[in-house]
Amino acid sequence: MKKIFIITGEYSGDKHASGVVRELKKIYPNVIIEGVGESNLENEGVKLFCNHKKMGKVGLTPKTIINHLSLGLKIVKYLKEEFKPDLVLLVDYGAFNLQISKHLKKAGIKTFYFIPPQVWASRKHRLKTIKKNIDKVFTIFPFEKEFYDKEGIKAEFVGHPLVSELPICNHREVFFKKHNLDLNKKLIGIFPGSRIFEIHFLLNIFIKAAKLIEKTRDDIQFVFSHAKSLSDVDFKIPYKELKDENHQLLAYSDALILASGTVALEAAMYETPMLIAYKGPLFFYLVYLLVRNIKKACLVNIITKKDYIDEFLMYEARPEKIAKCINQILDDNKKREYILEGCKKTKELLTNSHCVLKVAQSIKKELEEA
User: Fold this and answer.
1) Could you give the angle at the alpha carbon of 54 between the alpha carbons of 82 and 2, nearest 5°?
2) Distances from the Cα of 115 to the Cαs of 8, 39, 130, 162, 336, in angstroms?
3) Cross-strand partners of 168
4) Domain range holding 127?
5) Do both 37 and 121 map to the same domain?
6) Neighbouring residues of 46: CB distance < 8 A, sequence distance ≥ 6
7) Closest CA to 299 of 237, 244, 233, 346
8) Is the sign of the CA dihedral 155, 157, 162, 164 positive or negative?
9) pLDDT digits over 3-54, tens only?
10) 17 and 92 share one domain
């Protein structure tokens, strides 16, 4: 029987990988799968070598580097001497997985990468590692395949896993009633981020923007998304907040104020008008300017190769600019329709395939031909 080992490093990767396992077991039931992950993989019958607690946090602290190095060596030793897989599937978590790919290559283990590092956005030097050590890359954005093709790296566009994972939200009135929202007022959903430093730099800007909007109109209401990773101490606001209902808030809002990230892609899938903003430490921004490969930040703009969504980055992320843009989205039908056009184009480009099934089919084909 053929053997696969899967390496994930955080919740999202564990979730996406579990979808691949589910589909793979349908079309290749005798395959043996072990890996590094959490409950999603375990619930699909994957025997875990270890969970994410042993992965440590991403970063360049001495402790993290030592933890990653030690765990990586243990994984490689287990794969070489005991499990002996026919294929290893790396999922996301670039800092760790790119390092371990070097050892897998030396051990002669075939390695595929699902949701590879975003080398098209920054740190292009990582391409050398990918080209040398990865046998095949499964890309989640259509432009990524073109990028890898130019570098002579074997790649297949499989679509984005979010497309099939996002829940259908079609109970707006129930949502409004549950949270004592006014159906006669427009709803602005605000997502200030899930990391402490994002809250430090963005939360007050978004609160001030909301207050400015309130001064100019009385047909408005605000709800902030409170990420599970943030404590109540970190997240103090004078507005209504919700936990664990991100998708409903994205779907039912009339407009969105978003910290830049994957959440913009989710908003596009629900076809909700948005703007994005981002601010962080100046040093990290200067480093980003040096290593970036593209000038756009919003995934909708990157995928469509057009500036559909307003981006307010660093010193452009000011309350008055954000407030003005939200008012335009609500009052200017032409602007609103333009943003919706970008959302629909993004959706079309990403929904033409069943992502995890395509990955499973490609893995099965590889195993059968080996």
Assistant:
1) 30
2) 11, 20, 12, 12, 31
3) none
4) 3-159+353-369
5) yes
6) 6, 18, 21, 33, 34, 35, 37
7) 346
8) negative
9) 999 999 988 899 999 999 999 999 999 999 999 999 999 999 999 999 988 6
10) yes
